[in-house]
Design goal:
The protein is α/β, with parallel strands linked by helices and 405 residues long. The chain is built from ten helices and 21 strands. The protein has a single domain, classed as 4-Layer Sandwich (Purple Acid Phosphatase, chain A, domain 2). Helix 1 runs parallel beside helix 3. The structure holds magnesium ion and manganese (II) ion (MN).
Length: 405
């Protein structure tokens, strides 16, 4: 697919700001630069548009994050584009699809359609993918032209995680060709494994009880990582829809990124769920993380904000030895779509990606109201969002904007 850049994106990409990542220049023969690009917690924010205020905004939207992609790809010799979950729910567009338009078998969810257009390589699911029920989830996932994986949610639990009948494939091993520092191509097998907080069993009990079960994130990882290695994964990246919490492992923890990263065999970790930015000031002094080296539990990691606010980047310098590829150096960065100035004004750093330049408003011809969804009720911060005016674009009461993570 040809990626057309807007003028502003073109200028940002080509008028001096485009700098090759050091690994792209430094890689020798049998060494290769691999860039992992992460979006996370998009929550249906395809457009740079605030449906509550009914106006364009510069702070959100895959339409903006996507404008980073071409430059970000150009800075790297090899790259993969990954999403970390929570894409189906979280704004009026999501509720419109769920409650008005519906997701029949064969329909393509608009956020999936956007991700297909951008050439995502893989995704995992977040807790909010379960908000509208399993049929909605499965019909949405079925439209993706890329694998969507999750290792710790199962239709039937076996004696050990490897014997579970998982709802989605637990992991995927991407067979790719990678270019080394001498310009030679080599095969690489990139293993990806997905995780979601097991708390979904409480948060979406009415959809999930009796239908699926969730396992502890770290225990599940410890079972599958050796299997992925046996199947020939050269490197393994965790798509962890779980936040950066305590460094010490506790059974069933919601924010398990640090103990997960420490599992042997995991080479890099993409995190999310808590809608923060790593590396960055959100994690200054946070035990088990290092903002300077961009590591989580000692492994390269990132958390790319939320609603498309950032693109998370993990850059790996790989070296080929007799048995495959290993990571010999790494960096991490969360690249924003907007600059927040000291006077609190905003400077957009990218324009809309050409494919997604207009907000698509649902074609509403009749008056309707709806509740935001059953998950909102126990969450006090969400109770203000209860009814919608005749169009989906306005909320009658002043909405709280963060309905859980
Ligand atoms: Mg989440
Ligand atoms: Mn989220």
């Amino acid at each position: 697919m040809a990626i057309r850049l807007s003028r502003r994106g073109f200028l940002a990409g080509s008028a001096g700001l485009l700098v090759l990542h050091p690994f792209a220049a430094r890689a020798q023969a049998n060494q290769a630069h691999l860039r992992l690009m992460e979006t996370t917690d998009l929550h249906v924010h395809v457009f740079a548009y605030d449906y509550y205020a009914d106006k364009p905004v510069d702070t959100v939207g895959l339409a903006r994050t996507a404008s980073l992609i071409e430059a970000v790809r150009a800075e790297a010799a090899n790259s993969v584009l990954l999403d970390n979950g929570d894409f189906l729910q979280g704004n009026p567009m999501g509720d419109y699809i769920a409650y008005e338009r519906g997701m029949d078998q064969g329909a393509i969810h608009p956020v999936i359609s956007a991700m297909n257009a951008l050439g995502f390589d893989a995704s995992t699911v977040g807790n909010h993918e379960f908000n509208y029920g399993l049929t909605f989830l499965q019909n949405s996932v079925a439209g993706a032209k890329f694998p969507i994986i999750s290792a710790n949610v199962s239709k039937r639990l076996g004696a050990s995680p490897r014997e579970d009948e998982t709802l989605l494939p637990p992991y995927v091993i991407l067979d790719r060709q990678i270019t080394d520092g001498a310009g030679n191509g080599h095969p690489i097998r990139i293993g990806l494994i997905g995780f979601v907080p097991p708390q979904i069993m409480n948060w979406d009990r009415k959809h999930l009880e009796g239908n699926v079960q969730a396992r502890d994130i770290v225990a599940t990882a410890k079972a599958y990582i050796p299997q992925m290695k046996e199947e020939g994964a050269d490197i393994i990246v965790a798509l962890c829809h779980s936040g950066i919490g305590e460094a010490a492992e506790t059974e069933g923890m919601e924010n398990a990124a640090i103990p997960l990263a420490m599992v042997a065999g995991i080479d890099a970790i993409l995190t999310g769920h808590s809608h923060l930015v790593f590396p960055g000031p959100d994690f200054d002094g946070h035990p088990g993380t290092d903002n300077a080296t961009g590591t989580i539990g000692g492994k390269p990691g990132v958390m790319g904000g939320f609603w498309g606010s950032h693109m998370g980047l993990v850059d790996l310098l790989l070296e080929r030895d007799g048995t495959g590829w290993k990571v010999i150096s790494h960096t991490a960065e969360a690249r924003p779509i907007v600059l927040r100035n000291e006077d609190r004004s905003l400077t957009p750093l990218v324009a809309d990606f050409a494919l997604f330049s207009q907000p698509r408003r649902p074609n509403m011809t009749r008056r309707w109201t709806m509740s935001v969804g059953p998950w909102a009720r126990p969450r006090r911060r969400c109770t203000a969002i209860s009814r919608w005016s005749p169009t989906i674009l306005r909320c009658r009461s002043s909405p709280s904007r963060r309905c859980g993570m």
